[in-house]
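Anyone else keep sequences and structure tokens together like this?

Example one:
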Amino acid sequence: MLTITQALYDQIVAHAREDHPDEACGVVAGPVGAGRPERFIPMLNAARSPTFYEFDSQDLLKLYREMDDRDEEPVIIYHSHTATEAYPSRTDIGYANEPGAHYVLVSTADADGLGDFQFRSFRILDGEVAEEEVKVVEAY
């Protein structure tokens, strides 16, 4: 299960809406080993595409060095889908290389008739996708 604060949830959704019609992407870092998302880090989609996202390699290197310096790790890796449901594509699954991370997808398309976005979380390990419950809290 992913437990996330309302503030972080709102920041991820706002970033997805802001970058629409291109896919948004980013990371939420937290203390190593805690599994607690704390620091919101929106990233630039270097692909600037409505159907694909890509972290800029220099930005990603800088982020990982910064997280190392702060004793953090990526707890959430998120991106948006602009025309499809919030479910990992084959490309998303292929790029999932953080076995401990929660992969959050926000769809800014009303793909299910339930509203203007979906927010879903997955664990992706060795190509296997498992959806998990998302619990939104006011504070940890």
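And example two:
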Amino acid sequence: MGRPEGVEVAKTRTRGPVPTYSRVVPGVSGRVLVVDDNKVIRQLIKVNLELEGFEVVTANDGVECLDVVHRVCPDVITLDVVMPRLDGFRTAAQLRADPRTSGVPVAIVSACTQHEVETGIVAGVDAFVAKPFEPAELVRVVRRLAEGKDRRDGRKGAPAGRGRG
């Protein structure tokens, strides 16, 4: 199965202990909801996105994501695949089925096997970042999704879930 146009799969490998970012970007680049059951991974993603100017809210699994998504109105959501209670694919499918969140870009941050990519595409996922990931690649993918959402919305700062037709 080929990938539909516009779906991105980032394949990176983490190198040794190299500094990722040394500056905080002034201003907020957007709000990201990071969903992962692994606290260390959640924190790693959160820190790297915050250093690039994103506001980050976290959730432990898909159930918590669906509980908080309407309160935080994220510009982008990152999802792990394997999580308790509700996995990333079922979470993505529920986000797409809800008119209030159907336009929020979703990136899977996981092993990104061929099966995961194919299942993610069916669930409506916009991008994939393979673990282990380079922080710079993760930031690039999230920034691209956030900027694309702004273009779909037609204006900066529009409420989440609007703009995808």
